[in-house]
Amino acid sequence: MKVGLFVTCLVDLMRPRIGFAALQLLEAAGCEVVVPSTQTCCGQPGYNSGDRASAIALACKVARDFAGCDYVVAPSGSCAGMIRAHYPELLKDIPEADRAAVEALAGRTYELTDFLVNVARYEGKSNSSIKTMTYHDSCSGLRELGIKQQPRQLLAQVEGPQLREMNECEQCCGFGGTFAIKYGDISAHIAERKCENITASGADAVVLGDLGCMLNIEGRLRRRGDAKTQVLHVAEVLAGEPDA
Q: What pLDDT score does 179 carry?
C-alpha cells in the first residue's frame, strides 16, 4: 500500500528524527512510503485561532499534496485529528472542485500508532536501553481519535522497558498550541502538575505521541532541575532510537 507521511511542521523544524523514525516504522510494516516535498501545515493553528480562510486553503493544499496515496499517516494526534476530525467541519465552505478530495483525505488519514496497529497490523521487535517508562496521553489523539491502547500495545513489543502508568496520564500537559501562548500562567501550572506525576512514577523516560506536548513537558522538567528524565516520541522508542 502507498502511504503518504505527513511529517508535521514541528517535527520538520524541531525534531526531524521523529519523522525518520516514523518512516522507518512504516517501511518495516511493508508500506511504500512517499513524503511529498510540497507539504507544509495542516492548518490547525489558523483553525484554532479563528482563521477559517487559511485553514480551508491549507486543507485543499494537503489534499492535493497527498493525492494518489492510499493512506496518509502523521506522527501526531493533533495534526491527524485536524485532518480527520476537523476537515469535515470545513467542507461546506471548501470550493466544490476540492470538496471530494478533502473529504476523502479525512477518511484515509491516521495517527501513526493507530495506523500501525489497526491497518498495517505491525508486530515489529526492537530493543531499548530504557529501564522504565511512563506514557502521557496527548489530548487530541486521545479525545479526537481514541488513541489509548495502540501506543501501549506497540511499546509492549519493545524489549527492555517496563511501563509504569503515571497518575492522571490522560490529563493535559498545558500545551494546547496557542493556549500556552495566550494563557501562559495557567499552562505553566498544568505543566507543573504533569511533571510532578511523571517524577512520582519513577520512570526513566516519558513517552508520548505529539511533539508539541514533548517540548512543553521537556521544557518544564528541565526548568524544575530534572536533567535526567528522557522525553521521547513513541516512534523513536519503537524504532530503537531511545538515545537519539
A: 87
Spans of all domains in the chain:
2-118, 126-238
C-alpha cell at 238: 519503537
Global pTM reads: 0.95
Q: How far apart are CA 36 and CA 5, in angstroms?
A: 8
How confident is the model over 136-182, as pLDDT tens digits? 999 999 999 999 999 999 999 999 999 999 999 999 999 988 888 88
Question: Is CATH 3.40.50 what the domain over 2-118 is classified as, yes or no?
Answer: yes
Output the CA–CA distances (angstroms, integers) from residue 69 to 11, 54, 122, 189, in the order listed.
Answer: 21, 24, 19, 42
Topology adopted by domain 126-238: Rossmann fold (3.40.50)
Cell of 122: 505491525
The alpha-helical segments, DSSP class H, found in 75-145 are 77-81, 87-90, 96-107, 112-118, 139-145
Torsion of CA 11, 12, 14, 20, to 10 degrees: 60
